[in-house]
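Sample pair:
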Amino acid sequence: MKWTHAVLAVVGAAALWPAFGPAQGAAADDGRGGVHLLLNGAFDNRPGGLVDIDVQGVRGRGDVTVSSPVFPHRVTLAPYEHRAPAAERGHHARPAIAMSARPGSYPLTVRAGGRVVAEDKVEVGPPRRPRFTVTSPGEVMRPGERLWMAYDDLFPGETGTAFEARSPAFPAPVRLAHDPSGADWNNPRLFSGGLDLPASVKDGTYKVTLTGPGGREVDAKPLVVRAARPGDRDYVGRARGPAFFGTSPTSGPERARTHGHTVPVGGTVNVLWRDSSPDPGEESRLTATSPAFERPVPLKRDESKAGDGDLPRYYGPARIRHGLGEGSYPVTVVSHHGRVRKIGQLVVTAASSPSGVPGSALVTVVVCAGLAALLGLTGVALAKSRISGPAA
């Protein structure tokens, strides 16, 4: 834990200003009789860690410096807010504790124009061996979740500058880099990086290997990945479907039926799926499959106003294969990384002719009509033969 320690210098303007004045050096006076010293990192430091030092209220000319046995040399603070009122001006630095510093409590002294204007102490703890962090003990990651990794080698003798994390669960190596603006700004040797786990990664325990310069293996940690299941606290899926509706202007998702929908061979039907909360990334890979379809059908999110007030819904058009026999065919949708599997039944009928009469019925009609015409012609010939009688 990092602490911010603020100290109000007891040396007032009345004691310092007459001694050297504006022309001789910096005076410690913020209009309230003292100088403010703020230390971020006064406690819980390790050798090599950074201490953020901010001094406010120093007026006049001259360097503002900080010295302590934990620093290899005296540190000169840089001024900031030149155009601000005197009380808001300050001096800042972020020096590193020497790697050779032993555990203990050390004095820290601030000087302005050569005079002591504030004092405090810096606590230093023991060094800590390098540590690679992937997840906390017992933590389980979900497919599609963001994974952050860190390598802390703030330890004497460590000098690496490039690290990578590799795993069969990752699509590519992940670079771990030092970010001075991150949460651990006071650790100059904290390297971190992250990625979104692939939505398609399967359940299992994966090895995450950290490599350093030259590809040398530095450390390895386990990574447990498991999709949420019904009963888990984070499982919120409420899947419904598949249902079916036609492609005519009078049809739509509101009229979708889970049973009894018919479609002719060679026709098209829309497959509908509802889910209140798909797994991360699942919206881009929801698919309906069936032996009746020419190919698997991607189900896309319905962004229309018609979906307001309903569960999020996804649908796509499926073409029925030619040459398919009549009957009931299963339509399957798998979601939540295989934890949800639902099957609907689609009834396929014979192909329709252009007139709307089924093809097999049309053939029967044509054959019957031909036979009737043939019989009619034969009857006419016989009638004529009877009327005319035998030739004279």
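The mean pLDDT is 81.
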